[in-house]
Task: structure prediction
Amino acid sequence: MSAAVQLCLCALVLVLAAVQSVFGVGLLVFGTPALLLFGLPFPEVLAYLLPCSVVISTLQVADGGVRLEPIRRKLLAFTAPAVLLGTLLVLVILKRKIDMRQIVGAMLVVTAALRLLGSFRQRMRSFVRARLSALLVLLGLIHGASNLGGGLLTLIVSSVYDDKQSVRKHIAFGYGLMALIQIVVLFLTTPVRLDVSLWLMLPALAAVSYALVGRWMFSATGEAVYQWSLTALIGLFGLLLFVPA
Result:
């Protein structure tokens, strides 16, 4: 990896770690396509980004509380096995990333539009809550197979909880859980060539971004602004998935 790419990777992690510090997601959804454009193979993309994501999620869960609440039990029971299956499918069986960009993108764009309409938003919340277990399985399969589950996780959690504290801490728990599973499967099944010093430095940069920028940004954001920003983020996730990889 050239020095220019290394610098871009460090800058990318600093910026996206701040985004994930506020919303619970960001590093993988934005970072994965960016690093693929840099020419890194998908396993290397996972190897560099997943530890950064785990660090941010761990700090957020620690800040929000570690009690095993009902949605966390469901994430462990339904999402974790599905992530394991999806990751094994990509890294071991097919040995390539599955392209779900346009399917996931369309779903997220429609979701963001519906969140802007009060009546439809309530119906969507009822739909998600009634089918929570099935959607958590779908989330795990999509994320394991494509690394693009962040937007769907955000949609699910924001349909179950209303306040920003609960939304972020449960997104962080789910995102961290999925990342841990992916890391274990990756290093047990796939030979990955890494710059070890860079691999160790990036999670430290993510932690610094969280401590110095992300935590302050989250505290400074009001509840209404947070919910509008979350809707915009879901829509942006979706639109970006229509951009050719």
In short: DSSP finds eleven helices and no strands in the chain. The chain has a mean pLDDT of 87. The longest helix spans residues 164-189. Residues 3-240 form one domain.
